[in-house]
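Known limitations

Files may contain more than one protein. Parsers should not assume a single record per file. Below, a two-record file is shown to illustrate correct handling: read the sequence, read the token line, then continue until end of file.
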Amino acid sequence: MEPQSTKPKLLDQLRDRIRLKHYSRRTEDVYLDWSKRYILYHKKRHPQEMGKREVEEFLTYLATERNVAASTQNQAKAALQFLYKEVLNIRLPWLGEVQQAKKPKRLPVVLTEKEVQTLLAHVPLGYGLLARLMYGTGMRLLEGLRLRVQDLDFGRAELMIREGKGAKDRVTMLPKSLIAPLQEHLKQVQQLHEQDLLKGHGEVWLSESVARKYPNAGREWIWQYLFPSGRLSVDPRSGVTRRHHLDEKALQRTIKQAAIDAGLTKNVTPHTLRHSFATHLLQAGYDIRTVQELLGHKDVQTTMIYTHVLNKGGLGVTSPLDRLV
């Protein structure tokens, strides 16, 4: 009788490789999900037996039949590239030839300053400070949730945003009107952390590189999340009980409900606060390069979309009807 193979299953190999590369839990879930979908689409054939034709067929199917967004197709493409390159040791240099999902040119939803004020007034207490900080700095949703205590610099009125989009750090201003509320908030967070330590917990998640370099940093005050969750949870990777940051979906639901309660007729999400931040800075006369830097955009063309929101240039004309009035 032949001995059973001890080689791990493909998805287990994929999971191990993702963790070895220190990718986030979110990326792990996404890459595993797309790899499963790819295999199921081809009736459970092993990816090793498939190649260019099958990958192209799957990605084209997503674009033409499923009508997925361009970002969704790119996500699936990245997952398959990782699977083939990192697990199967097969390169896919021809992926750029695959039919691309169309990326619609949509202007971002932007609130007026009065609408922002009304929205923030309807955000519940547990999320109000974070919502104001996101609007006041132009942070993305996860950038705000992942802030650590040490990222605040009250003396310089600055905020360090670490590993933003593209894994880049950047510095933005800290609204002076939020310094006192944040200092009071920190006292409450520190009390919560001290209670966790007394109960044998108090450790926060750190990247592999930081945890290896600073073995005890996970329990230190400066590394704690600025906006911690109200409950402890077990890390599914390590089994360690920790206090994570606030849940992103809960914040999304909260902002959406606040917009409804405020009577706003726009589709408001946490990202709307970022769009409004950029637009209001341009309205105030700030240079677009300054806004680009604060937002962390790689290309100024990305920031230029807010000039369209402002209706500058050829669109900034007065309607003939208004002349009659």
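...continuing to the second record:
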Amino acid sequence: MRLGAKKLVFLLISCSVFSAGFAQNRKASSKGHSQQEATTIPYLLTLHERIVQAANDSVRLRAHEDLLQEMTAAFETTDFWSLDSDSLAQRIGIVSSGEGKNRLAILTWNVEFEDRTNGYGGIVLTRSSDDEQLVTPLTFKAANSQRNTLDPKNRYSPKNWPGAIYYDILARQQGNRTVYTLLGWDGADGTRNRKIIETMSVNGNRIKFGLPIIDIGRGSVKRHILEYNDAVSTTLKWREDMEMIVMDHLSPSDPSMAGFTAFYGPDFTYDGFFWHRNHWVLKEDIEVRDAEHNAPWNNPRKWRRRSRN
């Protein structure tokens, strides 16, 4: 029997928001280097800082538009893999996979609005058959103004991306194609957070989010969602030693709150997904010898303009 419990640890993430636009794919040559490469990352960090320090949502959105324009332009002419992106990765989510023409990188960020809802932005960097860098913007589309739902069965394109900050990526073979599994965080609203297992396929600049490769025991879903109280921290991470995606099992703080995820938190038991026959298969109530709860995300508390109680 699982016991309800809360861990009063905040997961505070502050980056920027992605608004509609720049829907066309971009190309950048990977050959040669330019003076711009030496200044690309510091410039993007400066633009990001304007978003963090914005006095209100209007200023924040305008600062975001500037960042989006400059980030898109930068990677039209600068090879991402030629840069040292460690400092940028401390401010936004950066995950990468593969080598050579199979290289893939995803950069994602968010902003928390004044009403504590969240918006998201990102770009996907892939390689063409000619080993050119392809830049595909991700256009965030909230389910509604309050971001109340996130459908585990929908398929999305870069033009109606559901949004998240991705902090890990796993590549697996499904037949003769590579499929990707992303682990991400979604700030949702003022009462709930989410951790998400997202699935993705890539064919050049053709990108799809949502593959039916997650077996939860009663059919397959395209993404798995952990939704929980805004004031607690929840584990969702790849454990190489266990060859599993390990996650906290969530329960309500009181049985009467069952179904109301704003009252859910870890109950000190764990579930996991392991890769079997081209699917992620759920295994419940697993034994986790080293329950490491260090967040896989660099906590940017010092960059926040506002704080939570």
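Parsers that stop after the first record will miss the second one. For reference, the second record is described as follows. Residues 26-145+152-187+198-212+221-227 form one domain.
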